[in-house]
Write a structure and sequence with these properties.
By secondary structure, the protein is mainly α. It has six helices and no strands.
């Protein structure tokens, strides 16, 4: 349910704020795959960093309560958190 909510919220924000927010959400949704395609594997620090929930969550909370006003940052964090939630709901059976 959380993955669906985050995806719907990211789509809502993307439609509301336009192309830059859509690009940010899609880019950060694909971030774990981009890291994997770059050749970084499971033991690496960057690989583990892009799969941690707290990083996009901190961005969302800081954006919500802080003085930052840049919607692509918010939707990027939503896209990233959506991907993490979806990966945990639908884990891949074979990791290469």
């Amino acid at each position: 349910m959380l993955a669906l909510f985050l995806a719907a919220f990211a789509i809502f924000e993307s439609v509301k704020y336009g192309l830059a927010t859509t690009a940010a959400a899609l880019a950060f949704f694909a971030l774990p795959d981009l890291v994997r395609l770059a050749g970084l594997r499971a033991p690496g620090l960057l690989y583990h960093a892009v799969h941690r929930v707290w990083i996009p969550l901190v961005v969302l909370v800081a954006y919500t309560f802080g003085p930052i006003v840049w919607p692509p940052l918010f939707t990027a964090a939503l896209g990233w958190l959506t991907r993490i939630a979806a990966d945990r709901v639908f884990p891949r059976t074979s990791r290469v």
